[in-house]
Amino acid sequence: MILVLNCGSQSIKWKLFKDDLKLKEKAKKKVLKSKDYKGILLKELSKIKNVKIVGHRVVHGGDKFRKPLKINGKNLKELEKFNKLAPLHNPFNILGIKTA
C-alpha cells in the first residue's frame, strides 16, 4: 500500500493506493479542531494498515529541492531550513514526515 499524505495547518489529507498505483480509496480529510496535531495524525495513521511507502507533499523546498526525493536525516534538516519560506505549511509537512 502507498500512502500519500498532505499535512496542512488546518487539515490532514491523504489517499491510499495499491502497489500497482491504482487508487484504493477516495481521498480522506481530517479537519483539525484540536491543538494535538501529532496525536490526531497518529490516530488517523493507526487506522491504515500494510503501508510500504509514504509520499508527502511539502510546500517549499527552496532552491535545493525541486523534485521528489527520498527523505533521510540530512535532507530533512535541510528542508527544515525552508520553514521560514512557508511558515503556515512546511512545519506541518515536516511533522507529518517525522510522524509517519
Overview of this structure, please?
With 100 residues, the protein is an alpha+beta fold. It has one domain: 2-Layer Sandwich (Nucleotidyltransferase, domain 5). It is 28% helix and 26% strand. The chain has three helices and four strands, in the order E-E-E-H-E-H-H. The protein has a four-stranded mixed sheet. A hairpin with a 5-residue loop joins strand 2 and strand 3. The longest helix has 10 residues. It is globular and about 35 Å long. The two termini are 14 Å apart. The relative contact order is 0.23.
Write the SSE topology:
Layout: E1 2-7, E2 11-17, E3 23-31, H1 37-46, E4 53-56, H2 73-80, H3 90-99
Parallel strand pairs: 1-4
Antiparallel strand pairs: 1-2, 2-3
Keywords: ATP-binding, Kinase, Nucleotide-binding, Transferase
Protein name: Butyrate kinase
GO molecular function, one term: acetate kinase activity
Key descriptive features of the protein:
100 residues, alpha+beta, Nucleotidyltransferase, domain 5, four-stranded mixed β-sheet, 3 helices, globular
Can you give me a brief rundown of this structure?
Helix content is 28%, strand content 26%.
